[in-house]
Amino acid sequence: NPHLEKMEEDILYHFALGTGTHDLPALFGDVKFVCVGGSPSRMKTFITYIADELGLGSPGSEHPNICAGTDRYAMYKVGPVLSVSHGMGIPSISIMLHELIKLLHHAKCSNVTIIRIGTSGGIGLEPGSVVITRQSVDATFKPQFEQVILGKTVIRSTDLDEQLAKELMQCSKEINEFNTVIGNTMCTLDFYEGQGRLDGAICLYTEEEKLQYLREAFDSGVRNIEMESSVFAAICNLSGVKGK
Hints:
Layout: E1 11-12, E2 17-18, H1 24-28, E3 33-37, H2 40-54, E4 75-78, E5 81-85, H3 90-106, E6 113-116, E7 121-122, E8 130-137, E9 144-149, E10 152-157, H4 162-175, E11 180-187, H5 207-219, E12 222-226, H6 229-239, E13 242-243
Parallel strand pairs: 3-5, 3-6, 6-13, 8-11, 11-12
Antiparallel strand pairs: 1-2, 4-5, 7-12, 9-10
């Protein structure tokens, strides 16, 4: 964004960070991997796990929330790994990603990989399976993210890094703990009707219509359903950041 260079100070409001109040290169300049997920508590658990795996810090040590000045998102850091919560749904993760990409830019980070981790509804898979996303698709199975900007509809690509998918699949084979597949992830706008659930406050379709839709999704290559992957892929692509 060329407008950023004209700003005297960039306030990352939802992180409670800013270029005028924090030395972002000193705090984040060594970041190489960012893992994002919906729940703050889950991302805290994740950074504790990563610290143990990398042997950074003493066992059982606390990892402070870098974004403690706000209740919007939580952020934790161990060595070159940043763990950030993004809330639920496209609007919430979109806000977080805008400020995360700016943070990485201001911190002068390079060769960063961003990975979204989280629960999702599987299609045709055993519970507990891991899906590595090839493409994010919308609810009509198209690999695109549609957004209205200044009154105009903008369509953005949702392809994700193919080589990274292969590397993650190889890691899964070496670990050999989870059933892992590479497939498309369907991103919906809500949890209930958008995902064909029968237990929402409103449901104007039959169970057979739901099952037929899920069969069509599976036949198109969809293997799981969630609510954030499309804008995640679009913003990573536009920013030139490797994402999965």
